[in-house]
Amino acid sequence: MSASLSASPRVESYACGHWLSGSGEGKPLLDAATGAPVAQIDSTGLDFKGMLDYARTRGGPQLRAMSFHQRALLLKTLGQMLMADKEVFYAHSSATGATRTDSWIDIEGGISTLLSYGSKGRRDLPNTRLLIDGSPEPLSKDSTFSAQHILTPLEGVAIHINAFNFPCWGMLEKLAPTLLAGMPAIIKPASQTAYLTELMVRRIIESGILPDGALQLICGSVGDLLDHVTAQDVVTFTGSATTGQMLRVHPAIIRHSTRFTMEADSLNAAVLGIDATPDTVEFDLFVREVVREMTVKAGQKCTAIRRVIVPRQQADAVASAICAKLSRVKVGNPTDDQVRMGPLASRDQVREVKDCVAQLRAEAELICGDPDNPQLVSGDVEAGAFINPVLLYCDQPAGREAIHAVEAFGPVSTIVPYESVDDAIDQARRGGGSLVASVFTNNGEFARDVVAGLAPWHGRVMLGNRLSAKSSTGHGSPLPMLVHGGPGRAGGGEELGGIRGVKHYMQRTAVQGTPGLLTSVTGQWMTGAPQSVSSEHPFRKSLATLEVGDAVLTDARTVTLEDIEHFATFTGDTFYAHMDAEAAKANPFFDGRVAHGYLVVSFAAGLFVDPAPGPVLANYGVDNLRFLTPVYPGDALQLSLTCKAINPRETEEHGEVRWDCTVTNQDAAVVAQYDVLTLVAKHTSE
Ligand code: NAP
Fold this sequence. Notes:
By secondary structure, the chain is α/β, with parallel strands linked by helices. The protein is 32% helix and 24% strand. The strands form seven sheets. It has a seven-stranded mixed β-sheet, with helices on both faces. Strands 23, 24, 25, 26, 27, 28 and 29 form a seven-stranded mixed β-sheet that branches. Strands 10-9-8-11-12 form a five-stranded parallel β-sheet, with helices on both faces. It binds NADP nicotinamide-adenine-dinucleotide phosphate. NADP nicotinamide-adenine-dinucleotide phosphate binds next to helix 7. The site of NADP nicotinamide-adenine-dinucleotide phosphate has 25 residues, from helix 7.
């Protein structure tokens, strides 16, 4: 790119429904490989308070008016649209220094996170606007006072301040759970790579998929934005600990107890098992993973392996295997197909990384890679932000500080030998809290001890061995369904983790009251709430007419010894408690021969089912089945089946209905309780 700086485009912000560029001079953003101007960035003059108001009054109410499934479908549509357009993003991604593989993680990894939340939202959440959290808590003996925890979306804005290394994934991994929860977002990407985020946001806005005000973008400084946050807002920060710690104590954030999540530096470790000698698969996997983590995104990954913790007797073998592989890594312009590692994001980053390497060299010797003389296969060594992979070795780690504290945010790792299992654990924990550690071992005892030692200090621990070599997603990949975050130095934050991540944008409230009122509030029937019994069996009702609380109270059926024996021989379940009176009596729970639990469940179905074809399409299982009182020959079973929850599927002609099934005996003791799950048509076919 040879355009002059004044001719380079200005990255714009999207505020209050308009694309705007700042009124200031603009800061130049340069291509990481060539140093050519890519864009200018500035946000001077934006109405930051107006943006918050816009999100709160426009985006929030529209999102909250939708159900989880409707919002999940938005994510799916958005993901599909972005995936179809992916090459546009790839074309601009190389300016950030990313190779095609690096860009794949950022672009397709980010879009996949949207799609993953799109399907999780419809699979794991109900098609409602309020989320029930846990089971009801009975608070009185006579079932007249109970409690239920619920989650509702916060009514403010999620402000996402992101790091430079993943301009797409960094935005989308936070946006997906935010929108699914029903909250609007304002994205603030790191300036250095904001042009790629801007491009993606443009596509999202142009698509018209999201409601107005659901997504805004600030390219450049956030101005006085944080002065106007309230108790209903959420601020998430990803970046350096220094910036995060400053923002965390912003007066408005402290004054309003605004939720603040921080994902910061992390000196992640990979531990080689005590069993993993150079002739093992685990040794090779370990070496490959370390090299991959050092070179993907040129080591500019929050999850990259910074500390390579190995048994002392293997230190030399590990060092020479890693050095051999690193020496073959081709560094250069990311648009060059043969290049495996591109430049850092900027020359400022190169300066910072070199400074960190200098600090590390006070404690560790450099054994591979010269940080001052990049060896390139292509690219401009003078104007580009290049650095070679750098491997260090700290022979005597006891009492050392820098190797566990200095994060060189580039292709830099340090090998640290350990003397015992406890020493390996201690070294890893000295990172002060990390996002991830990986352990390469085929020894269960070693894995158990090391995970027990690492877990309190890590958000994720990956175990690698020969069996998972092909299927493993690797050390460095945060996954939408798994928690991303770590304690202490890693920021103490938590993101993703499937539906856990959605709940970060919702308020949990304990609601107390009569079961009837709680049922009205939550839309889910609970024990003690009124039941509606009519001459029309609820299985005759489609979702159009079925209501929560509709119930059947059945006649009684007496269980005989013949029934038990017939069931036993018919199914083959001749367990002694059903067949042998003496042996059953000797059992601490029974006074004699008892009916099979599954016989009770089968009789229950026979009692509640309405057999003729109708809106009930299928039974697809039971949840929470418990047998609470033994059933003896002569006992009379009776049950109530009550419509507990109705969950229409957004894109189908049917939905799921959950029924409470409570089976009692002649003394009104509950013998079995469970939820019956059925699929029911939305409308009755004429
Ligand atoms: P950074 O310099 O701390 O910047 C992070 C973000 O904060 C950028 O968007 C930056 O915007 C913004 N920012 C800076 N000063 C601000 C202020 N006063 N008010 C509001 N926002 C402000 O970090 P970085 O250099 O981009 O990222 C590298 C670091 O991020 C590394 O240490 C890495 O470990 C960490 N990281 C962590 C994770 C994780 O998930 N834990 C993920 C990726 C990266 P400008 O760019 O406009 O200054």
